Give the backbone structure.
Amino acid sequence: MATINFSFQNFQYIMCSLDRLIQEHGLSHRNRCQFFEYVMKMFGDYVVSSNSKGVRGRPLSVELSEEGYKMASNYYGNKKRNKKDGYGYIYCFFAMNGDGCRYLKIGKSVNWRRRLKQYPGPAKPTEVVGTLHVRHMVTAEQKMLTRFRRWFDQFDREWFKIPHGFEKLVTDLFYQPLQDKSEG
């Protein structure tokens, strides 16, 4: 039984590799170094192992966790089809506190963890409300913004003033399914 478990782990491990990403999306093996660098930069938080010295005649290898592979695959799938409104994530977080309110940000990204690390100073996330994997991230973000505009005061394109005590409503609104006709 231990052997089966070990084999299964190796199978998952191999299935989330740079080789699979290149093959699945019809990317050129000639650009392997560029893909390696980009995957390490964009999805480095999800890298399980990497080797930049070469394995079996291949110059570079990267193995990602399942979630990381899903993000990278979505990214290259959208890029190949030249779609800006493709697979990705919408996220929601609280940043700073103000007089009687908290400030909430709603955004979109292919790699939400990396994106959250990019917010500086007072815009830095203090509490992540949630993330959702969506098929059309631009459309989903617009629907989410429309939903929040109905309930809260907006003070910038994607920022809202949330009175203290309304945190549960924010969570409920964020995780409520997005409907097509009523929200956009």
Summary: The radius of gyration is 20 Å. Confidence is low (pLDDT under 50) at residues 1-14. The chain has two domains: 2-80, 88-175. The chain has seven helices and seven strands.
